[in-house]
Design brief:
The protein is an alpha/beta fold and 353 residues long. It folds into two domains: 195 residues, Vaccinia Virus protein VP39 (Rossmann fold), CATH 3.40.50; 138 residues, DNA Methylase, subunit A, domain 2 (DNA Methylase, Chain A, domain 2, Alpha-Beta Complex), CATH 3.90.120. It has twelve helices and 13 strands. The strands form four sheets. The protein has a six-stranded mixed beta sheet, sandwiched between helices. It has a three-stranded mixed beta sheet with strand order 11-12-13, with no helix packed on it. Strands 5-6 form a two-stranded antiparallel ribbon. Strand 1, helix 1 and strand 2 form a beta-alpha-beta unit.
Length: 353
């Protein structure tokens, strides 16, 4: 299957499709300069950075699947829930109307679902779920069968809870069946219990920019993320903590937080997750302890490193960044990216394997 991607962040969702040899991303639109290197470092071919208006974009290559990541939330909030005609979502729909690929996928934060519940009348998606979802309605008007898949990455073996909404457009009567996640809180054994922080980062060694692993992969999760590498990058904290903060977090036990803040000016909340449990949801300030409920390392008195966060989110070790990227920008790109595991599950659902 030939794939077109729009605003792909790290492109790790599309990378899941490329794990099956017959699939390939052939064209990318709105690829920011700051992700050109990490995006291309993991894909089959190299793409140059570009910014385009997607509604006016004319693809240079034929493609079967469009993976679209519109900026939905901000656009709807600015225009009002009942009017989304001028935001990025409508531009993506215009692109679909003009190009009509066989399949299309909108990858959105799950918080966008209530914002899209704006249709004037009830409709049914292809799973026969009833709602007033505007995107389902618009995809049906174009001529697709439309599915809404809401999932938690943790149930697919990722070491943190991250909620995602996939709006999937298929040809009529395609009868899509999305693979069910097999991991849960209790499980029937170690193979389908939630992956833990230890499962994700237990093999990482000394801190540094290009450092060898501490030992051989301890599990399938680590082996899949290494993909044959012998060293890893970006395994160092993205922000140096003041001594007062280090002193404060050193008193916090696993599974608990501290009510007191290190200073009056810096209001902070701390949370030290347990080493042998799944990580709570990470936000784009994972690299600092200045936000509420900021996660700190279960065993060490520091924040998670960039590599540890990428590992916890199921992003492969060959994802790297140029050193001059700003830390807030990099953190947001990491947290907004979807694990290749979810891309692989979606590829199975669309039978492009």
């Amino acid at each position: 299957m030939k794939i077109f991607e729009y605003r792909p962040f790290l492109g790790t969702f599309g990378l899941g499709f490329e794990r099956f040899d017959q699939n390939e991303v052939v064209e990318v639109a709105n690829l920011p300069k700051n992700v050109e290197f990490p995006y291309n470092n993991t894909h089959k071919q190299w793409f140059l950075s570009n910014f385009v208006e997607i509604c006016d974009y004319k693809p240079q290559k034929e493609f079967d699947l469009a993976i679209l990541n519109p900026d939905v939330g901000d656009g709807i909030r600015k225009q009002g829930k009942s009017n989304f005609k001028t935001n990025d979502l409508e531009d993506c729909l215009t692109f679909l109307r003009n190009n009509r690929p066989e399949f299309a996928i909108f990858t959105l934060d799950i918080g966008a679902i209530p914002l899209l519940n704006t249709a004037e009348d009830y409709t049914r998606d292809a799973f026969d779920q009833v709602s007033k979802d505007m995107l389902i309605t618009e995809l049906q008007k174009i001529g697709y069968d439309a599915y809404l898949v809401a999932l938690d990455e943790a149930s697919y073996g990722i070491s943190t809870h991250k909620s995602i909404a996939l709006y999937i457009a298929t040809p009529k009567n395609f009868n899509m069946k999305f693979p069910q996640g097999l991991f849960n809180q209790y499980g029937l054994g170690k193979f389908n219990r939630y992956r833990t922080i230890a499962d994700a980062i237990g093999d990482l060694g000394h801190l540094g920019e290009w450092v060898p692993y501490k030992n051989k992969p301890q599990n399938v999760y680590q082996r899949n993320l290494r993909r044959g590498l012998e060293k890893t990058t970006w395994h160092f904290p993205m922000k140096k903590l003041p001594s007062k903060q280090i002193e404060t977090i050193s008193k916090i036990r696993q599974g608990s937080g501290a009510a007191k803040t290190p200073s009056v000016k810096q209001k902070a909340g701390y949370f030290r997750p347990k080493w042998n449990q799944i990580c709570p949801a990470l936000d784009f300030k994972f690299y600092t302890v200045s936000s509420k409920r900021a996660c700190i390392h279960p065993l060490l008195n520091r924040t998670f490193t960039a590599r540890e966060c990428m590992r916890i989110l199921g992003l492969p070790d060959n994802v790297s960044f140029e050193l001059n990227i700003s830390r807030p920008e990099m953190a947001k790109i990491i947290v907004d990216s979807i694990s290749p595991t979810i891309g692989m599950a979606t590829a199975l659902a669309l039978r492009c394997i």
